[in-house]
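This part of the workshop introduces the protein records we will be handling. The question running through the whole workshop is how a given chain folds. To make this concrete, we reproduce a full record directly below:
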Amino acid sequence: MEVDLRSPRTLQSAAAGLILLGFVGDFRAVVPIAALGLLATFALVERARRVTWAAEIVLLVVSTVLFAVGRAGWAWVLAMLGAGIAALAAAADVWIKPDL
C-alpha cells in the first residue's frame, strides 16, 4: 500500500499522532511544532478543508499561549481537542463545513 505524504488525511494523522505522543511524554514543544506544520501546509489544502485546518491551528496556538503563561492543564485540553479533530478528519474523512 502506497502512502501519499501530501494527502490531507496523512498530514492530519501525523499531527494527531505527534500531539498525542507529546501528551503521553509531557513534551510541550510538540504543540507549537504541530501548529507550525499545519500552518506551513495550510495554503496547499483544498478550500473545502481549510476550515478544519484553521480550527486546529487556532486551538494549537491558544494552547501554546496557555503553556507559556503556566496553564498546562487547559493547554493540554485544547491540544487534545485539536488532536481529536485531526484524528477524526484522518480516520473518518470528516471535515468541519466541507461543502463550500
